[in-house]
Amino acid sequence: MSVADALVDAADADGIDFDGLTVAAGDDGYQFRTPDTDAVLTAADLREHADSPYVTNWYYWEHDIGGHDTPRRAFLRWLEGGDDRPVPERYDALDSGHTRHWGELAVTVTHGDAAGSRRYDVRHADDVDADTDTLATYTDPRDARELVKHDDDDGYRPLSTAPSLPHGWAFTDLDGGALVDTIDYVYPATVANWHREREGSLDVDHWADVADRQTGIYGIVSDLDEDALEWAAEACCVDSQCLKRREWDRDEDDALDVPRGDGEFPCREPCSLFVAAARKFTTLEREDTREYTFELTPAEKEQIEDIIGAVADDRTDDIREADVYEGANRYRTRFLRAKRMDDHGLSGTPTYPEDHDDDGDDGDHH
Amino acid sequence: MQALVIVGHGSHLNPGSSEPAYTHADTIRESGAFDEVREAFWKEEPSFRNVLRTLESDEVYVVPLFISEGYFTEQVIPRELRLDDFDPDDWDSDGTDADHVTLEADDVEKTIHYCGPVGTHDSMSEVIVQRASSVTGREEFGDDFGLAVVGHGTERNENSAKAIYYHADQIREMGVFGEVQAVFMDEDPEVDDVTDFFDTADIVVVPLFVSDGFHTQEDIPEDMGLTDDYRTGYDIPTAVDGHDIWYSGAVGTEPLAADVVLERAADAGAPVGDAVDAVREQTRGANAAAGD
What we know:
The structure holds two protein chains of two kinds. Chain A is α+β, with helices and mostly antiparallel strands. Chain A contains 13 helices and 13 strands. In chain A, helix 4 packs across helix 8 (190-198) and helix 10 packs across helix 11 (272-285). Chain B is an alpha/beta fold.
């Protein structure tokens, strides 16, 4: 159906009241109003207004997109500020491309060929200024599943919202539906939960409830104590590890102190990766502390702290091979191992001294 | 609108675990039988917890890409999908008969048709035979070929073994192979001794697993003596104890398995039109080079 036909049909039916455009059929003709125009028109004159930005905008959202109250529509509107900015301003932005970020993605909206239509481009935000010809381009959203499965170093990404999206690709010339499908493959369910949050209906499941409903090997996670839950959230849920904004806490009345993150989309409950990690943390926390006595130089103590920091912050690959001034440098670490570790571990101190007799037989705690 | 959701296990460690779910979902997408098709996982995303809210359809058919009835199909999946009224007794199954139940999910206003797992559907027997065809390149087998259907086997879930015996019995009745035996990784009769159970010169070994991973790619080939170290690979077939063993890898990767997913939804009342025939035609023999 042409825009002109749709315009007259809609005016004859219930009228139009959308994004600054109102059209109503009356006894004298069609009342046509925009912020710039106020006229009573014949049907023929009304058809002449089919190329008005207000009309083509209405046509796009009502005929191409539809889906009132769906997350899909709300997300596409959000991308171009559809609820906040007047149509001419949006159209001006679309002329050169309007970009918003979603996690590590940059989504750019432009005008399509058909009147009012939009086309969408999505890529890593770091590649937003890259010439598309230099990127691997895709048009089928399903390709995103395989594409985002590994990071730039070919490491498997079990957590879709980890800030490790690979670079060097772009989905181009997508329509609205394909764009949302692509986002759903890159960051599954983020649009749906973001929409629920905007509508005030996000159903947050806090840790206590999530832990309680676990069964099988995960049934033990409710034993994780308060401090350990804080440490677990600090380990797994901060922005450097996951781009979702944590909305769950220990329970409704007991918030965690760990920063929630600044992400655009919410995390409504601890994910399967967190629960799996929490299971391991739970078993680790069952151990009592022991006193071990061994000697380290001050530099060696700091070096161990450097190594823990480098692993925790995923910096080991950034430490140059010959940079022996870095505590977590490989040669430095090998030197420390050669000097301070033997078959019994650090400084020759057995982990379980009671399992070792004087001749140094190893116990079996592994 | 109607949607199909394929729910699989997924993995935090193995990137290939979700592959069969994606492949079968794509086959069914291309059949046009559903307005929406989604994959969801226990260990990947979208999670079972979040998948239903990503759909615009109000009729949803949920098909577990699992091999047997038990912990996942009866506890984990219904709980995580918030099918609060689910009762395993409604399936009225003795371990291999789960069909479908219609329920409401607590977090969305949709009708959920929750189906039994693909692994216990009658048609999975045909997929096992098709898998045997794919790995051997043969349309027919005859008396010189035996078929071993391999299950994990676990004392925790007696249904795990039931599904294996069920298909072994069905395939035996088809009369396509000289012999058919069920064998297991963790219980007798064990896959380690597979050649002891066959008189046939050739033995096709098909693991009733959803996806390839540690068990199908590492354990089973080594247990059967195809190789001392899975990393060095093995021939298809490999001669072991005077038999030629044709090892197929996980049956769930066979393209025809998409048909079982579709049939599960159709059995639950999904109006899929002629999609079942179309998918069967498309996927039958589609993986003849699976032995590579």
